[in-house]
Structure formats: structure tokens, C-alpha cells
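Example for tutorial group B:
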């Protein structure tokens, strides 16, 4: 069993923390480095916690122990003589060595969090009942059927290696919001007086945040949206609008506005929060918090090779074109 640590509440004052933070020559907190947001804490609150935002230390220890035990079991050598999965699931081909779900429970402002969502109090996304489908990819699927996705234009953004996006959970590592996924949960932050760049390990997506600038016109949209930022004392506040129409997070649409806050609390932790505001998708804006943990000194992010050496998508497309040709000319 691996050793683990439950965070101890700090006894020093906020002023002392602020004074000890690493800072840039301009006096701003120095966010530069490599961070991870892997955690056992889910986005939405499990039903058993009700409206409890925090769990006890004993509950947190138990959850972390279960996560570590599962990791130990998953890392055991695979039996080469084992039978194939009885449920037909071949997607879980990796053992846990290759995954990166983390084992820590979020510990923020002295609380072991039961969910990332802190507002509304029930820890759930306040979806608007009867809201229209705003995900362009889903609308295309409804309009054209699954066969349309056998062409390169309709393949999902993940299949095209443009951005990582999990259609089952609406999670995106590059964001915004920047959510933990099954692996590659590392980020590199580069910071100057006028820009902050956040590079996500998954598919090496880099988001350039202009500081103290206006948003571009709504006609200009791009992957990960148009992000501007400013410093509110020692907190970096980022506003993002005009996400690409093929991006949808938790039912959001073109009117989504995401406000992120990065609050450095120590050399090794940044409290990252985000607020999702889309009146079409939600009955009210909702807010979540998580922690970015500094990776050990000396670690680096390697380039994520997505399509390099990948013959699956070209094979699928080529096979479909061949089938189309055969159907058009049966002789």
C-alpha cells in the first residue's frame, strides 16, 4: 500500500501566506510551472452527502484509502491467460498504471469537499428543464444520423485530435473549464506581464489569455474561446466567451460565459474555481472549485502524440469510401 497524507490545516495567517508566495518581477503571484488537477472528488455531489459541502476527515481518509487500494489492485500484473471480458467491453484495455485519476480528496479552505460544485448548495448542475440541444455535434447527429460521422468533416473534435472532449461526461481538459479526465491531467502555465498561457497536456492545447484587454467581436470564435484576464489583488480572473460552436460543456451553447479564478495559496497549490453562466442551459449560474497541485520539481510535460502512428481514423474513412464506391458501382 502506498503512503499518503491528509493535508493539515495551516496555522499561519493569510497575510503571511500572501507574503511568502513566489512572485514575478511585477509583484504578481508566480503561477508558472507544471500542475495537475487529478482528484477523487467528483464534479457533482453524490446523493449520500445531500447538501453537505464538506466531509469529515475520517470520511476523506477512507475515500483516499479505497482509491489507493484500487490503484494497487489495478497495477497488479495482468494474467495473460485470463478470458475476454464477458460484457463485451474492450474499452478498458489499460490497467491503472496508465490512468491518472488521483487519490486525493479536495481540501480547500479547511474543508474536505464532497463535490467540486459549491453553488448551488445541493452540489448539482442546475439544468433548465426543456432546454434546447445546443451541442452542434449532437444536432448534426440528430439531423444527419450516425452515418454522417463516417466523413472527416463530421468526426468529433476528439477524433480529429483538435481538443480532448469526453461526450459521456462533457469533460474537457483544455476547457474552459479545465476538468480532470482519465489521464494526462497536467498543465503548464507560462506568465508574462501581458499574457498568461495555459497549455494542457492532453492534445497539447495552449490557451492564450490576454491581460487587461477587451473581448474580440462575437463573430470571431475559436477553440477554447476568447479569454481575457486581469489581476484582482493576488487572484487571476479569466473571462472567456465565444467558444467554438462545436464545443459544448454540460449543455452549454454559444452564449456561455465562463469566469475562472486562480488563487495561489502556497508554492504547491492553486485553488482553481470557475463559474458557468448560460441562461439557455441553466436556471442560474453555477460555481465549482478544485485544486491545481504542483508536480515534483524536475518533471516535465512531453508532447502528446495524438494522430502520429494512428491508422484507425484513416482506415475507417478509407473503408467507408471503398464501400460507397462499391454501392455506387455494384458490378
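The residue assignment follows.
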Amino acid at each position: 500500500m502506498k503512503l499518503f497524507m491528509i493535508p493539515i490545516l495551516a496555522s499561519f495567517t493569510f497575510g503571511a501566506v500572501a507574503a511568502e508566495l513566489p512572485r514575478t518581477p511585477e509583484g504578481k503571484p508566480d503561477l508558472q510551472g507544471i500542475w495537475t488537477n487529478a482528484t477523487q472528488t467528483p464534479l457533482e455531489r453524490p446523493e449520500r452527502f445531500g447538501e453537505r459541502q464538506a466531509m469529515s476527515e475520517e470520511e476523506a481518509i477512507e475515500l483516499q484509502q479505497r482509491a489507493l487500494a484500487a490503484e494497487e489492485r489495478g497495477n497488479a500484473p495482468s494474467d495473460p491467460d485470463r478470458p475476454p471480458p464477458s460484457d463485451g467491453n474492450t474499452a478498458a484495455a489499460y490497467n491503472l498504471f496508465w490512468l491518472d485519476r488521483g487519490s486525493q480528496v479536495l481540501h480547500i479552505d479547511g474543508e474536505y469537499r464532497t463535490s467540486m460544485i459549491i453553488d448551488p448548495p445541493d452540489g448539482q448542475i442546475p439544468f433548465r428543464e426543456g432546454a434546447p440541444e445546443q451541442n452542434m455535434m449532437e444536432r448534426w447527429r440528430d439531423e444527419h444520423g450516425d452515418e454522417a460521422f463516417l466523413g472527416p468533416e463530421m468526426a468529433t473534435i476528439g477524433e480529429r485530435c483538435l481538443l480532448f472532449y469526453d461526450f459521456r461526461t462533457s469533460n474537457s481538459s483544455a476547457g474552459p473549464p479545465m476538468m480532470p479526465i482519465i489521464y494526462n491531467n497536467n498543465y503548464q502555465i507560462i506568465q508574462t506581464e501581458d499574457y498568461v498561457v495555459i497549455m494542457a497536456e492532453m492534445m497539447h492545447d495552449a490557451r492564450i489569455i490576454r491581460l487587461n484587454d477587451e473581448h474580440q467581436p462575437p463573430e470571431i470564435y475559436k477553440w477554447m474561446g476568447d479569454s481575457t484576464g486581469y489581476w484582482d489583488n493576488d487572484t487571476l480572473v479569466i473571462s472567456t466567451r465565444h467558444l467554438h460552436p462545436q464545443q459544448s460543456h454540460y449543455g452549454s451553447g454559444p452564449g456561455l460565459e465562463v469566469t475562472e479564478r486562480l488563487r495561489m495559496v502556497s508554492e504547491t497549490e492553486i485553488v482553481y474555481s470557475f463559474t458557468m453562466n448560460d441562461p439557455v442551459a441553466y436556471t442560474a449560474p453555477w460555481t465549482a472549485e478544485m485544486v491545481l497541485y504542483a508536480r515534483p520539481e524536475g518533471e516535465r510535460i512531453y508532447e502528446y502524440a495524438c494522430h502520429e502512428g494512428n491508422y484507425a481514423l484513416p482506415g475507417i474513412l478509407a473503408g467507408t469510401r471503398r464501400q460507397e464506391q462499391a454501392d455506387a458501382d455494384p458490378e
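The chain has one domain: 30-69+98-297+307-324. Compare this with the pattern of hydrophobic and polar residues in the output above.
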